[in-house]
């Protein structure tokens, strides 16, 4: 993991993410206030230590998912946690992250865009432990439910 210096606000957010009693965390604030960076860090830690295999990261489109959650100016899942995460494609065409969590096993983070119902239908029907949604305020209500 890269060395990152967090302020108290970011540390509080990550601590909330790691609290097992927290079932949902919604971050709101100004642009460039480290909401997404804190959410990515907390999400990755929850995935890493989870006993479940399946997890989900979603954004408006796959392009915004790549920019905001996977790359994120060096703070994304693929850049900050490149030692653990590998972008993989299923034979049927959907992408996911293979996450090697050492003694905690291998995890899978499915990736989907929510701008079109067809894009997220493939994640229905499975048991998903942790979900990271970028810009949930613009997501279709049925996707969020």
By DSSP, the count of extended strands is 5
Strand content: 15-25%
Largest sheet, described in full?
Answer: 5 strands, mixed
Overall average residue pLDDT: 83
Helix content: 25-40%
Written as H for each helix and E for each strand, in order along the chain, the element string is HHEHHEEEHEH
The total of helices stands at 6
> Within the largest sheet, what's the order of strands?
2-3-4-1-5
Indicate the radius of gyration in whole angstroms.
14 Å
* Weakly predicted, low-confidence segments: none
User: Structural class of the secondary elements?
Assistant: alpha/beta
Beginning-to-end CA distance, first to last residue: 33 Å
- What is the general shape? globular
Structure in words:
The protein has 145 residues and is an alpha/beta fold. It is 33% helix and 19% strand. The protein has helices at 8-18, 35-49, 62-71, 77-80, 117-120, 141-144; strands spanning 54-59, 85-89, 95-100, 106-113, 131-133. Strands 2-3-4-1-5 form a 5-stranded mixed beta sheet. A hairpin with a 5-residue loop joins strand 2 (85-89) and strand 3. Helix 1 (8-18) packs parallel to helix 2. The longest helix has 15 residues, at 35-49. The chain is globular, with a radius of gyration of 14 Å. The mean pLDDT is 83.
């Amino acid at each position: 993991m890269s060395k990152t210096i967090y302020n108290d606000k970011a540390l509080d957010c990550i601590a909330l993410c790691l609290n097992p009693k927290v079932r949902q965390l919604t971050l709101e604030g100004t642009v460039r206030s480290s909401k997404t960076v804190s959410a990515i860090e907390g999400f990755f830690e929850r995935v890493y230590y989870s006993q479940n295999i399946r997890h989900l990261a979603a954004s408006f489109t796959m392009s915004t998912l790549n920019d905001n959650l996977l790359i994120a100016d060096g703070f994304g899942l693929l850049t900050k946690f490149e030692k653990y995460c590998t972008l993989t494609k299923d034979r049927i065409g959907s992408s996911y992250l293979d996450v090697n969590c050492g003694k905690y096993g291998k995890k899978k983070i499915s990736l989907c865009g929510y701008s079109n119902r067809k894009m997220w239908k493939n994640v229905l029907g499975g048991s998903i432990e942790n979900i990271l949604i970028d810009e949930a305020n613009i997501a279709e209500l049925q996707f969020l439910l």
